[in-house]
Amino acid sequence: MPTEETLVLVKPDGVARGLTGEILARIERKGYSLVDLRLVEPSRERLAKHYAEHEGKPFYEPLLEFMMSGPSVAIRLTGDRVIEGFRSLAGTTDPTSAAPGTIRGDLGRDWGLKVQQNLVHGSDSQESAARELSIWF
Ligand code: DAT
Ligand code: MG
């Protein structure tokens, strides 16, 4: 199988809390390679494309508002099985129950908001990765 690529985002909460370096350090220590990286303030249109699968869900509008609240760091990351591997590093969606040792489990918490602020995004399949990388890069 050829080496994979994935889209990682350090979301606005991660950037605002000064955790970009910590998150990049975890990715680098795991052994994955940065191919491209940029600070992005995404438009609503870009976010609507990125989160199309969630349109109509109760957290959709709060999610877009949160993602427009400040810059994100977009990362093109590569390595064998990096899609699965980064999702494992990130931990599960809900930061309260995400396992200690993961980015979300160690650095995230519930803030009582309508959308979970969980620091990072990682593509969930090869199809998502190709689609999302074309949206952010
Ligand atoms: P993930 O980011 O783990 O792939 P997802 O794609 O299901 O999770 O959802 C996108 C984001 O939306 C997620 O990172 C946080 C938020 N979210 C998901 N489910 C939620 C829920 N039930 N309540 C509040 N926010 C939610
Ligand atoms: Mg997802």
Helix content: 40-55%
Name of the CATH architecture:
2-Layer Sandwich
Report the β-strand fraction as a percent range.
15-25%
Radius of gyration: 14 Å
What is the CATH top level name? Answer: Alpha Beta
CATH superfamily: Nucleoside diphosphate kinase-like domain
Tell how many strands the DSSP assignment holds: 4
Hetero compounds? 2'-deoxyadenosine-5'-diphosphate, magnesium ion
Major beta sheet, specifics?
4 strands, antiparallel
Overall geometry: globular
Number of helices: 7
Domain count, please report it.
Answer: 1
Quick summary:
The chain is α+β, with helices and mostly antiparallel strands and 137 residues long. The protein has helices at 12-16, 20-30, 44-50, 60-67, 82-90, 103-107, 126-136, and strands at 4-10, 33-40, 72-79, 120-122.
Provide an overview of this structure.
The protein is α+β, with helices and mostly antiparallel strands and 137 residues long. The protein has one domain: Nucleoside diphosphate kinase-like domain (Alpha-Beta Plaits, 2-Layer Sandwich), CATH 3.30.70.141. The chain is built from seven helices and four strands, in the order βααβααβααβα. It has helices at residues 12-16, 20-30, 44-50, 60-67, 82-90, 103-107, 126-136, and strands at 4-10, 33-40, 72-79, 120-122. It has a four-stranded antiparallel β-sheet. The longest helix has 11 residues, at 20-30. It is globular, with a radius of gyration of 14 Å. The chain starts with a strand and ends with a helix. The model has no long low-confidence stretch (mean pLDDT 98). The structure holds 2'-deoxyadenosine-5'-diphosphate (DAT) and magnesium ion. Residues 54, 59, 63, 93, 115-116, 118, 121, 124 line the site of 2'-deoxyadenosine-5'-diphosphate (DAT).
